[in-house]
Every structure is written in structure tokens, then in C-alpha cells.
Amino acid sequence: MAVARRAREHDVVIGRRAQRRDTVWRRLAGRLANAVRRSVLGDGASDTGCSLKLFPTQALLALPRFDGMHRFLPALFRYQGLSVREIDVNHRARRSGRSKYTNLARLRRTVFDLAGVYWLSKRTIRVGARDEQS
User: Which candidate, 124, 54, 110, places its Cα nearest to that of 87?
Assistant: First the structure.
């Protein structure tokens, strides 16, 4: 299995939804949000909205915890000096129900959190980060 092999080769493995099956508006909002986050933090992650994330428990416990931190995990792990690798995963459309989130509802919180993580990135003492992209 590719995920297990990557997990042995890298400290952190995150998924990237290949061929997203969301609405056009959700895909555009995701692309814009990921581009802004990537340009501000330089984390190189193309899709932090994908829920597949494998990481050492101790690395997660060492992070400052806040609501919405899942959007910034690749950057936060890189600040700890961990290698992060993205892999393509299948994206499955929602089978039932509706999302409780809208693009506008997340915008204010995400911008505030992005400013906080940016501040943290400038204050973090880095320990030999290794960047690996697929």
C-alpha cells in the first residue's frame, strides 16, 4: 500500500484529493484558500482540506492546539523539522446529507488563524526541516 510505504519513508504523509467531486464553487474556494495559505506560509501543501493525514502522535502533541488547526498541519509539522509528503487519494462525493459549512462562514476564522500561524512561523526556531514534494 502506497500510504504505508510513504509513512515509513517520511515523518508525515498527507492526502491530496485527486479529481475532486465537489461543486465548482467549493473547488474554486478550495483552490483560492490553498493558494493563499501556501503563499503566506510557504508550506507547499496543495490540499489541506483532505482528511488523510498520518503523523507521529508526539509530533501532534507538541503543537499548539486551536480550532481549525487541521488546515495548517503541514506547515506546523514542517516548523518542527519533520518531512511532509503528499500523495494522491481518491475523492468520493458525499453520499447523503449536506455540509454544515459554507465558504463565507469559514473565511473570517481561517484568515485570523492564518495570521496567527504566520506569526508563529516567524517566531519558531526551526530544526533542520526537510521538504519533499511528490
Answer: 54
DSSP for 98-112 reads --S--HHHHHHHHHH
3-state DSSP assignment of residue 64: coil
Q: For position 85, what pLDDT does the model report?
A: 93
Within 10 Å of residue 50's Cβ, how many Cβ atoms?
21
Instruction: Give the burial class of 78: count Cβ atoms within 10 A of its Cβ; 0-12 exposed, 13-18 middle, 19 or more buried.
Output: buried
Using an 8 Å Cβ cutoff, are 89 and 52 in contact? yes
Q: What is the pTM of this model?
A: 0.81
Task: Give the number of other CB atoms < 10 A from CB of residue 56.
Answer: 14
Q: Is the pLDDT of residue 107 over 90?
A: no
